[in-house]
Each structure stands twice: as C-alpha cells, then as structure tokens.
C-alpha cells in the first residue's frame, strides 16, 4: 500500500477504488447533466430546479466516493450552474443577487448533504466490517470447538479469513524461530510477511502473502488472542495431566509402602518366630510340633514369594516391560497344574466345557492369572465351601469362570476392585489378605494376552471372575 493510498484510506474510510469511482461520477455526472440541461429550453426563473438537479449529482457522488469526491462534484456543479444558467451566461460573474444566493446556497447544501451522506456511508461500512469480524470470530470459535487439535485449525482459518498464502504460529524465544503449528508448506522465512501479531511473550501469528490493510489488523489481533488462549489451555492441560500422574504415583507409592510394610513384616515375623523356636535349646519339640513349625516357615515363605511376584508383575506392567508370547495352550494342563500349586487345592473343583479347552495364551502368564484369582476366591470363601472353575466357549472365545461362595460385592464396586492396592469391600484388612495387587495383576496379564478379566455376581451368592481369551483349535498331533 502506497503512502497516498494509505492517507486516502485513513481520511475517507473507503477503499481507493471508491474514491476514484466517485471522482468519475462527479466529472461525468456533471458533464451529462449540464449537456441535457443546455439542450433543453429553460428560463432564468428555473434556476432553483437546476440547482436541485446538480445537488442530486453531488449526493450520488458522496454515496459512491465519499466526502472528497463530493466536494469536487459540488465545485464542478456550482461552476457549471454559474457558467451556463446564471446571468450573464458564459461568465462566472453573477448580476442577479437572487441567483448568487441560489448558487451559494447550493454549495452550502451540497457540502452539508455530502458530509451527512459520507458519514452515514462510513458508519455503514464500519458496521458491516464489524459484523464481518464478529461473524469471522464466531466461525473461528465454532471451528475450534469441533476439533481436538485446535492450533492447526486456527492457522488454517486465519489463512482463509485473510486470504493469505500461508499462516503459522511460531515460537520466537529460541535461537531460531520454531514452528508450533501452521498450514501446509509454511516456514518462518518462506515468503513475504503479509502481517504478524503478538500471541504472547514467546509466540507470534504470522501470515505470508499480500499485505493486509490497516483495518484488518484488529481482526488479526483477535485471531492472535484466540491462539494465546489455545496455547494456554494446552499448557494447562499438560500441567494437569502431569499433576494427575504425579498424584497417582504418590498415591500408589503411599499405598505400596503402607501395604508392603505390613504384609512383608507379617510373614517375616512368622518365619523368624518359627526358626527361633526350632533353634531354641531349652525347649524340646515333638516331631509333630517341628513339622508344624516347618510348615509355618514354608507357608510364610510362599506368601512372601507371592507378594514379591505380584509386585514385580505390577512394576513390569506399569513400565510396559511385560512381553507375552501367546501360543496354543491346553487348559486341561494349565488349570489342574495351577490348582495343585494353591495353598488349599482340595477346596477347588473344576471342569472343562465342550470346545472350551484350547486357547491362545502365554501358559506362564495364564498360570499367574488363574493363581491370583483362585487365591483371592479361596481367601473370601468360608471354610468348608468350594471354589469352582469352569470353561465355556462363547462366540469364538473361551471364558474361564472362577466362582467363589463369599459375601459378594455391590455392583458399583465390581470394577473398582481391579485397581492396584484395592481390597474387596467384603474382605477385612489384615494378615492373609495381601496388599490388593492380585486382581490388578491378573487383569493386566490377561490384557497382555489379548484377554480380559471382569467380575460379576455369582447366581447362588458370591463373586465370579471371568477370564476371556481367544480360542484356538487343538493343534495336530505329531
């Protein structure tokens, strides 16, 4: 934009082409009206009518080209009226005072009317521009609300709104500007800068292409304000996620320390007491008592091993270090083998449904899943009542159902029990009830094998854990 164009735009509020069009209307309109009036017969007493006709030319010029073009029209029309229609004709002098007043009145009225028309047109243009800006910002807000990644959407909307070739948000607090979000092909030095606006202390919104007119910079600043809001919101979301992760880790760490400090000390205390009794020289134990003490040591050691295995599995799950190696697996081998390793295998019954024996699973991980679920079921089933394991084929998958006869759980707590360090609501905290990792580990290991673990109510009372795994046909022998 040249210096003259900028000055014209600022003083009239209209584009340059409107000013030139107004000047054309002033010149051509005056010439056309004068030609028509000269060719018609007229009487000096009709001068007020002639003046009004010229006034229409001035008003039309004001509507098209603004105040300056209207002033040019007023001067041209007054000169034409004086030259052709006031006595003496073909002279700029006026002998009749009434005609002089008529011409002077014409100039004053033309000036006033042109000013009023110009201001009205300018206000209408400003109102239209404001309406367009409001509509543009409303469209931008609606666009941003409908997309998850808002900053690239904003740069695309900015390029469209301002007719720019490219648009981008760049970070400027680094040694070299870094593009944060941009339209395709944008680089900080990739083309002529049409305009830029400050987003915040470290970012700018940059447009490449044809320079913007001054009145468009206000809208660009509004787009930059939207970009600042988006960046701030993203930063807050990132900080909130970090804070939630830290809070979750802190809760897990606190729960781990609290649970482990108790559940490690209990079996260790049992082992220490039993060993201390066996080593005592002042007490003679019968073979039966010695066997009981040795069994207590073995049971406490098994509990320690189970606890440590769960802690290791949970840590591997949380860091993504667990690797499952699914293969065709026979539940007819895994289920009884897992039951034999339980603390009370004689309390577990099992049967395999037709077509529900072979699954695609990691046999070692599946043994850990079933072991945790069965130990949990035994812990919450009253003594003397069995835990039952059954398999069923369901739509191309196999369900392994572990049903206990305990008190059960409210429906609202069926999913919460799978959170780490959560004990079932029907189980009191204390020795023998673990740190609350067994179910969480079971679900995590099952998901690593493309399986699931869910809890549901047992129809006869209690809780049923349902392990669902992909089924596989029995591999050919040999």
Which tags fit this structure?
alpha+beta; Helix Hairpins; 478 residues; 4 domains; Beta-Lactamase
Short characterization:
The protein is of the alpha+beta class and 478 residues long. The protein is 56% helix and 14% strand.
What is the topological layout?
Blueprint: H1 3-12, H2 16-39, H3 47-85, H4 97-145, H5 150-162, E1 166-171, E2 178-182, E3 193-200, E4 203-208, H6 217-263, H7 265-279, H8 287-319, E5 327-330, H9 331-340, E6 348-352, E7 358-361, H10 363-380, E8 387-394, E9 397-403, H11 438-448, E10 452-457, E11 463-470
Helix pairs in contact: 2-3, 3-4, 4-5, 4-6, 5-6, 7-8, 8-11, 9-10, 10-11
Question: Could you walk me through the main structural features you see in this protein, from its secondary elements to its overall organization?
Answer:
By secondary structure, this protein is of the alpha+beta class. The chain folds into 4 domains: 126 residues, no CATH class; 89 residues, 2-Layer Sandwich (Beta-Lactamase), CATH 3.30.450.40; 72 residues, Orthogonal Bundle (Helix Hairpins); 148 residues, 2-Layer Sandwich (Heat Shock Protein 90), CATH 3.30.565.10. The protein has 11 helices and 11 strands. The strands form 3 sheets. It has a 5-stranded mixed beta sheet, with helices on one face. The N terminus is likely disordered.
Radius of gyration: 45 Å
Order of helices and strands: HHHHHEEEEHHHEHEEHEEHEE
Oligomer: single chain
Domain module tally: 4
Poorly predicted sequence stretches spanning 5 or more consecutive residues: 1-12, 425-433
CATH class of the largest domain: Alpha Beta
CATH T-level fold name of the largest domain: Heat Shock Protein 90
Number of DSSP helices? 11
Helicity range: 55-70%
Q: Estimate the global geometry from the Cα principal axes.
A: rod-shaped
How many distinct beta strands?
11
- Specify the structural class: alpha+beta
Strand fraction: 5-15%
CATH architecture of the largest domain: 2-Layer Sandwich
With strands numbered from the N-terminus, the spatial order across the biggest sheet is 6-8-9-11-10
